[in-house]
Amino acid sequence: MYERPQAGGGAGKPQAGGMARRWRGGGLGRSLLVRTADLDGDGAAEIVALAGPELKVFDWTGDTYQLRWEAELGREGLSLAAGSLTPEGVGAVAVGTRDGVLLYGLSSGGLALLCQTLLFPGAYFRSVDLADVDGDGRTEVVAAGSGAQTLYVFQIRTAGGEARLEELGRVYTGGLVTAQGTPDGQVVAGTRDGYVDVFVPCSLLPGPAQAIYSVRRGDSLWRIARKFGVSPGSLARANRLTEPYQLEPGQILVIPPPAGPARSGTRESGEGRPPPARGPGGSTPGGSPPPTGR
Would strands 150-159 and 140-145 be described as parallel, antiparallel, or unpaired? Predict the structure, then answer.
């Protein structure tokens, strides 16, 4: 069952540190995306392969891998992810397409479509991942739409006995190519311009009293804080910013809720005091101009 490496044109023993091919299959005649995951809960990982509109799952039978489940997507698959939906290990397969994301799982009839997103025309979901990004113990689908240049987070919701992938949040990221969740709930995105962006859960899923803001050219921490009626200090802390508070265009900031009015007779902290007066050109007396988005 193992194909040993060839040495000098003939059969030979595997070299130390070498690899021996255990199995080869598929033969789908086109480029493949492959992932591994334990979809059936037997403790052994299956091989999930995506070839355009064809989705296939190969299972180890004790001496070889055999095609066990397959599905026709009805559209071209662009990206693939496989993993668990719940802590109990319920397996699923996410497929990104040009206009949406499909979620497959095992049923009594084999590999079946569990649910899908609404249509996002021209989004081109070239990257999908399964990760718990909001810490609720359930897996979300993280999808990067390179055409829409937008990072989406979806979660399975059930209404009227019907499941669907519902959008929880989105962030515009110029030049977005790929995105992946991390074990600690962050989302890491890569762009075609060579940037790596890390988003924290509250950036993607803001609370009722929060908002998010994308930094624009010419913005400064002071200007954004004044725009939303919050103190520069609270804005910096909400986003873990440190001096000199350099901002970049496209950077996502979490806007905390405005603080209530200070009680009379109490002294406000430094963060609650109004910013210093600004001279011509926006500079502060005796200081340098505030950093702005480049």
Answer: antiparallel
For residue 45, CA distances in Å to 27, 69, 110, 178 come to 21, 14, 16, 24
**pLDDT band, residue 207 (cuts 50/70/90):** low
Residue 245's nearest CA partner among 276, 260, 223 is 223
Concatenating the DSSP letter of every residue in 118-136 gives PP-TT--EEEEEEE--SSS
Q: Considering only CA atoms, which of 113, 109, 195 is closest in space to residue 162?
A: 113
256 DSSP β-pair partners? none
Residue-wise pLDDT for 221-232, tens only, equals 999 999 889 999
Give me the mean pLDDT over the 190-202 stretch. 85
CA 199 to chain CA centroid, Å, is 9
Residue 26, pLDDT score: 83
Dist. CA 205–CA 186, nearest whole Å: 12
